[in-house]
Every structure is written in C-alpha cells, then in structure tokens.
Known about the structure:
Layout: E1 5-7, H1 11-17, E2 22-23, E3 33-36, E4 41-49, E5 56-65, E6 83-85, H2 93-101, E7 103-108, E8 110-115, E9 133-139, E10 145-155, E11 167-177, E12 188-190, E13 192-193, H3 195-202, H4 208-213, E14 222-226
Parallel strand pairs: 2-5, 5-11, 6-11
Antiparallel strand pairs: 1-3, 1-8, 4-5, 7-10, 8-9, 9-14, 10-11, 10-13, 11-12
Amino acid sequence: xxxxxxxxxEDQAIADEFAVATVADDVRLLPPSWNVAPTDxxxxxxxxxxxxxxxxxxQLRVAxxxxxxxxxxxxxxxSRMINARVETxxxxxxxxxxxxxxRALLPAxxxxxxxxxxxxxxxxxxxxxxxxxxxxxxPQDGSVAALAGLYxxxxxxxxADDDPDRWLVSVTIVTRPATEAMAAIHDRQPLVLPxxxxxxxxxxxxxxxxxxxxLDVPPPPLRATPVSTGVNAVANNGPSLITPTGPxxxx
Length: 251
C-alpha cells in the first residue's frame, strides 16, 4: 500500500516538470510536506477542459487524498480508498469510471513504507513485537516520482447549488505488487509512471484499454533509506523525517 508520502518541491518546479499550463489558486496555499497523510489536500496533475475556453489543458490542482465515489452518501468512505489495486481497477465500481476518464499524476519526492520487524523468540511475552522500521523510498536520481492516480467528483447534498464548496474533488493512488527488490520491505508499492507514459495516462481521450497498457510499465530505479520513527506521527513534518538513520537497504 501507500499510506504516507512526501511532496515538497515548489509549485513552479512541478509545473515546469509536467508542462502544466494552469496552476489553480488553491495549489499555492498548500505548504510543502514531508509527511502527506490520508485526507490531506494534495497536488495532482490532470488534463481537463478549461472553464473559460473549453480547451483541454494540463492543470495542477488540489484534491483530497482518499477517493469519494460520486454515489457515496458521505465523504467518510474516502479514508478507506486511499489506494486502488492495479489488479482490480476495472472491476471495482468506485474505480472503473475514473480509470476510463479521470486519471491523474501525483507529484511526489518519495514515499514511506514500513518493514515488519523479526518475529520475537519463542517464549517471549505475548504481544511483544519488534517495532516496524520506516523507509524513505525515492527515485535514485532525485527526480520527481509521478504516482498514478484516479480522481472523482462528489456533490455534497447538504450544500446549496451556489455554494463554491459543494463539490469535493478526491483522488486515490494506484498500487502494484512490489518488485523483488522492494518486496523485502512491503508486498505493495505505488505505481510510478515514467515521463514517456505521462501524456497517455492523463489524456481523457485515451480509454480503458489504452490506460491498461500503461499499468505494466516497470518502475524507475528506487532507493530505500531507513529513517526515524518520527514519520509515524502525522503531526511531525519537516526535512528531518527523511534524514537517514542507516545504510540503504536496497537500490
């Protein structure tokens, strides 16, 4: 799974990297984060029709992490839909429609995963387990990681038609089975798309079949660096969270 990541590059750097034409106003209100958690507002790259001209443009927008299907009774379901398994995207009602027409890229500097500790020796007190070791997993070359995502719109029935907050935009991160190297930490990892797949993934004219072809792309080389358990608490934030506490586990 992917339950925590970091996105601390400047908005303009992301806009330049992804050839974004329009940066939404609320994007500039999001501070950099070294500990992005579910239900947080996150930056996403999408291709949508411009409200003024109707022209399809590449935009940098804000969404809430945790997809809320359009048919949901309330947004609480989003906390259980922070990830979408690549194996069942087309089969799950919540993800099938976004896969066809509402795909996004979430710019990340890296993500976190926790490796379970060794089993306690025989005879140890019940319930006493070694703490999980967090790892900061990021592209080896320092480039941005473009996490494949799906987004959706949910209309709040309690709000008036003229309420600017009546629509909630939410997003989920697509995950895949871990590579052999990363499986030593966790059996899942986010789907990171290479630059030559970005345009096709974002293009709303590319249908389900075309999108599916992009789901098997190999991930870029990643580096897994052990970090402190400070990242475990969502209240903690800042560059110190990615300070190495030991040698890389794998590259």
